[in-house]
Design goal:
- The chain is of the alpha/beta class.
- The chain has 3 domains: 1-71, OB fold (Dihydrolipoamide Acetyltransferase, E2P) (Beta Barrel), CATH 2.40.50.140; 134-275, OB fold (Dihydrolipoamide Acetyltransferase, E2P), CATH 2.40.50; 291-457, Vaccinia Virus protein VP39 (Rossmann fold, 3-Layer(aba) Sandwich).
- 25% of the residues lie in helices and 30% in strands.
- The chain contains 10 helices and 22 strands.
- The protein has helices spanning 80-85, 95-111, 170-185, 228-238, 292-305, 323-328, 342-354, 367-376, 395-404, 416-427; strands at 13-17, 20-21, 27-31, 35-39, 47-55, 60-69, 134-142, 145-151, 159-161, 200-207, 214-220, 242-249, 262-267, 271-275, 278-282, 313-317, 334-339, 360-364, 383-386, 408-413, 431-440, 450-457.
- β3 and β4 (35-39) form a beta hairpin.
- The longest helix has 17 residues, at 95-111.
- GO terms for molecular function: rRNA (uridine-C5-)-methyltransferase activity.
- It comes from Weissella koreensis.
- Pfam families: tRNA_U5-meth_tr (PF05958).
Length: 459
């Protein structure tokens, strides 16, 4: 069939078998061996009846009408709203099925860059729902009421209303509802992207897993909310365990949720929580892993795979507020951290002081430049830890690692696709993977998976 003649039509109803799962969790049915139709809530091997909802030259999207032959791993939860918003694409897959699928996805990521590396079975999460310690939700007036939830995957003008977000700590969900209703009561104007008018854009809530402290952040287009004092008083009166109430001023015309412009409305500028026996200061903009129990497993695993010795000098790159570096400080001689966000480094220094850690030093600088400087100063780096954002490492950072020539390089990743790309680069520059790639499920019910790998210098 000529490629300019599409094998499907919009709104056509078809049947097919799912042959692949994409890294975003969507199932794929191939038509004529080359034309993919992508579907939510469709798992490997399932025979699906579906309707075409979007048709393009290279691929199409469909919606499941009926599962004709279900996978043995399917376990329907009757929570269609989570699929409608894209919050939990694996909600109808048994937990064992989720772990098997995530192992397969990691294997595929490495195969796609021609790396044949052993991928271990994922370490599962003890708590598989209601585990997140942070969320940021949009607000919108719908049907006469202020609504919170997440945007509809197929209609970005609509919010899918939610009370139970399924992934969040239940206290976070309750807090969102309380704050939303207070804003509705005060008739707080909601920001409108089309008119560029209004105030409130998002509600962010954090809750300490051990401390139980709650932070509420009101993200506003305006620097000051109408009826601000009344709103503050109502939130303080009604939100249990509130420790910090902050206004984040975000006048930007971008998709960025928070800026660095924070004003304390009530209480403290940060909350605290504990991780592996250390106390951490967590501000509105702090990067802090969202699944607290599996984060402890993750960092213990990273330390174990790093084969740490008391004589080691360790570098914590992309160090954030110091969570990885400070969690291993008692296992090594010295820790050096580098992070480009100055506010995060200030928090790391507070964390060092309050935990009475005397062998750690954190610097606000560009990581590649600072690492080259350390090499020129003959810093004896034995092991480097990296935990980059989803986009992975830059070549300049990897070149700096190669320049420093640590004996061990521990890569913690939340994106196996960019991890595979980066490990491929490192194998071409003098390093090799030792042992397995170890997935760990930080994000049950979703398509995301964390991985840890140890690389050693080939010499």
């Amino acid at each position: 069939m000529p490629r300019n003649i599409l094998p499907v039509k919009l709104n056509e109803i078809k049947e097919g078998v799912v042959t692949d799962i994409l890294h975003n969790g969507m199932g794929v049915i191939l038509i004529d061996q080359h034309y993919p139709v992508k579907l939510v809530d469709a798992f490997l091997g399932e025979k699906i009846q579906y309707r075409l909802t979007q048709v393009d030259r290279l691929s199409a999207y469909g919606e499941v009408i009926k599962v004709l032959e279900p996978s043995p791993d399917r376990k329907n939860q009757n929570k269609a709203y989570l699929l409608k918003a894209g919050v939990a694409p694996y909600v109808n897959l048994s937990y064992e099925g989720q772990l098997k699928l995530k192992q397969r996805q990691v294997e595929q990521a490495f195969q796609s860059v021609d790396l044949d590396l052993p991928v271990a079975y994922p370490i599962g999460a003890e708590q598989q729902t209601h585990y997140r310690n942070k969320t940021v939700v949009p607000l919108k007036k719908q049907q006469g009421h202020l609504t919170t939830g997440f945007f509809d995957r197929q209609n970005k003008d609509l919010i899918v209303p939610m009370e139970d977000y399924y992934l969040n700590d239940p206290v976070i969900d309750q807090t969102i509802g309380i704050v939303r209703d207070i804003l509705d009561q005060f008739k707080t104007p909601i920001y409108n992207d089309a008119t560029k008018q209004g105030a409130m854009r998002y509600i962010m809530v954090r809750r300490g897993y051990y401390s139980k402290q709650v932070m509420v952040v009101l993200v506003s287009h305006l620097a000051e909310l109408p009826d601000e004092e009344g709103i503050i008083a109502a939130i303080v009166a009604k939100v249990p365990a509130l420790k910090s109430l902050i206004l984040n001023h975000n006048p930007r015309q971008t998709s960025q949720q928070l800026t660095g412009d924070n004003r304390v409305l009530w209480g403290d500028a940060a909350i605290h929580d504990q991780l592996l026996g250390h106390d951490f200061v967590i501000g509105p903009n702090s990067f802090y892993q969202v699944n607290p129990k599996t984060t402890e497993v993750l960092y213990q695993l990273a330390a174990q795979m790093g084969e740490l010795k008391k004589s080691d000098v360790a570098i914590d790159a992309y160090s954030g507020i110091g969570t990885i570096g400070l969690s291993i400080a008692d296992q090594v001689q010295r820790v050096y951290g580098v992070e480009v966000v100055e506010r995060a480094v200030e928090d790391a220094k507070i964390n060092i002081a309050q935990n009475k850690i005397e062998n750690a030093e954190y610097i606000a600088a560009d990581a590649p430049a600072q690492m080259e400087k350390w090499r020129d100063q003959n810093l004896p780096a034995d092991v480097i830890f990296v935990d980059p954002p989803r986009r992975g490492l830059t070549e300049s950072l990897m070149d700096a690692v190669v320049y420093l020539q640590p004996e061990r390089f521990v890569y913690v990743s939340c994106n196996p696709v960019t991890m595979a790309r980066d490990i491929k680069y490192m194998t071409e520059h003098g390093y090799q993977v030792k042992g397995n790639i170890q997935p760990l499920d930080q994000f049950p019910q979703t398509a995301h998976v964390e991985c840890v790998a140890l690389m050693i210098h080939s010499n």
